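Q: Hi! First time asking for a complex rather than a single chain. Here are the components, and I think there are two in total. Is that enough to go on?
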Amino acid sequence: MVDLMTPSRRGVLKGGVALGAGLTAGLAAPTVFSSKAWAADYLNAPTGDTVTFGFNVPQTGAYADEGADELRAYQLAVKHLNGEGDGGMLNTMKPLTLKGNGVLGKKVAFVTGDTQTKSDAARASAKRMIEKDGAIMITGGSSSGVAIAVQSLCQEAGVVFMAGLTHSNDTTGKDKRRNGFRHFFNAYMSGAALAPVLKDNYGTDRKAYHLTADYTWGWTQEESIKNSTEALGWETVSAVRTPLGAGDFSQYITPVLNSGADVLILNHYGKDMVNSLTQAVQFGLRDKQVGGKDFAVVVPLYSRLMAQGAGENVKGILGTTNWHWSLQDEGSKAFVKSFGEEYGFPPSQAAHTCYVQALLYADACERAGTFMPCGVVEALEGFEFDGMGNGPTLYRAEDHQCFKQVLVVKGNENPTSQFDLLEVVQEVPVDQVTYDPAIFGGELGECNNGV
Amino acid sequence: MDAILLQILNGLDKGGAYALIALGLTLVFGTLGVVNFAHGALFMLGAFCAVSFNQLIGLEKVTVDPTQMTPWGTPLEIRVPMIEDWLGATGTFILDYSVPFSILMAIPVMIIVGLIMERGLIQFFYRRTHAEQILVTFGLAIVLQELIKTWFGANPIPQVPPDTVRGAADVGTLIGFEAGQIVYPYWRLIYFLFSALIIGGVFAFLQLTTFGMVVRAGMADRETVGLFGIDIERRFTIVFGLAAVVAGLAGVMYTPILPPDYHMGMDFLVLSFVVVVVGGMGSLPGAVAAGFLLGVLQSFASMTEVKSVLPGIDQIIIYLVAVIILLVRPRGLMGRKGVMES
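A: Yes, that's all I need. Here is the structure of the assembled complex.
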């Protein structure tokens, strides 16, 4: 008989094991599958007069400025969805089912999370918004690593994920999920759009040297740009992987000097791109001649916020971007006007893609007549729309990738204002950047309603 | 051969930054016995002195042009730096040389920051364990970097060197190479010379002045110096201020090489601590020698030829050297006998 008043060592151990097993069982069962899930046909079905969106953006860390711009865009989108402000792109989006009185008669509320541009932190904040705050949809982010991680979490939990800024082929390639959608373009599309412009500017007899950020986005961009430029006849002299956040890239740039290469392709983004480009220019690469040809630097993925960081060094350097505030279509003009009036400066491409994603999701709910994830997924798959910048756009059903015009841009030689840093060289038609979804593999799998 | 020379040059300018930060760290450890994890933040604050100075002298006069409109329908603002408006060509010159001129602002700012840091916080941890010192100074570093991020944002803010030294020098022609074979940015060469000058200045100050002599005596035996009636604590406080100035100036001049952001201090801090350990805790010549040595080693390790044989070696070389040194010679290359050996 066990004496409860005088616990033995064995008794304590037994009790500890039992308690540990109980706790482990409790912890192992995801609360997301056990909280409100059984109350409805789908997870977090809104019961009151509001529906909650979850904005998961980097509020701290290296991409905090992009995150702040994404959040501004989401707040503007919520305002427009709830019938406040000038309506922005709701005035130009076609077809449009939204009525400007919320979504399915419910006002849109939102909660925010901080991804910190770290996959684990992003998953934790998304999980918190789904489990504790009852978010029906998660959107945002400024990194492919984060997008892939959060997309996977949303698939498991059973909510829709509308990706923010993510450019890796993997997001809608090998890591695609039925519950996830990407409006932003990808590395393949950058390569396909950029190659003809590179040919026009630098010819077909070139030797390229790649410096590549050593993670999923960098690898896929390097592969895509290599494929595109080699198809032009360019030779790839070397492709060197650089650690993320290296800071000083001088030791990677000096080997370029006497490598025989006459083009440096920087597969870097954010702070890495600012630093590597600044340092490449300091080493005289932009003024260098190799074999009678002017040396060229190419930055395949540009953003205005990065261009601000790199300052004068971006002048004349070619790259691609998803969208730019100087576009003159009605949708872009309406968005720039709303955003500019609200905040006093033009939106970044991150802000644009996030604003559009929020509106597209809301419109899909309205068309589907439900917030049920599988209904919304069905409404988004194969959806064709216009009036949101970039011309007629398709949300391809096979991989949930948006297909639209891609912009080839150049660092502005003569900027007229502090925002006028990039000049649109070409609006590349959608046909040129469309590809077979099978080339990147992956399976969408089944849609998940979370119950 | 040209590739090797280029990597040596790379190592020297990077080593210059490591050496300057490690020098300050060693000064503080040697005098006050404090392991200061906020020292990297001082490097970052110096860099932001350059940013602040540039923003101050770049304050703009804004006029509204009603004939031109922004895309969102408000009249376009025309901005001209006020200093150019007031001083003409002289204003343009000051704007162009804003990084070197910002040293004038950084010196008093860093002295004040250093003294506030030492008097306001660190003096209360002199007799605490190193673990406690590390915790509190690391916390302070995080507070400082978050303050900078709140004020200046998270993105890097580029600073440009003066126009005359913006390009690259053909160093190779000076030593018999063909033109264009070994080119190196002017500013990085200037940074190397600047760091050598500052290091020389600190050593001269410690070796040739009475103040320096007292400090060195205090580093060797604080109690005996105190018995002579010398207020060694006050002198050590001044040394803390001096270390802050050295870190700050290193940060100011590094801004054209690496656009400063709130995290740059943390990026350099860990490497600089390794430099101090390799050089020998408390050894000033050791810190300088190890700074340059590890800078050059890191550059060589990132050569394609080396990485093809030892993939990833560029990421671990510094730590590998530190491990070997700690195993073979725990007091570091030039550390005093007994330090870190007990």
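A: Residues 1-39 of chain A have pLDDT under 50 and may be disordered. Let me know if you'd like any chain examined more closely.
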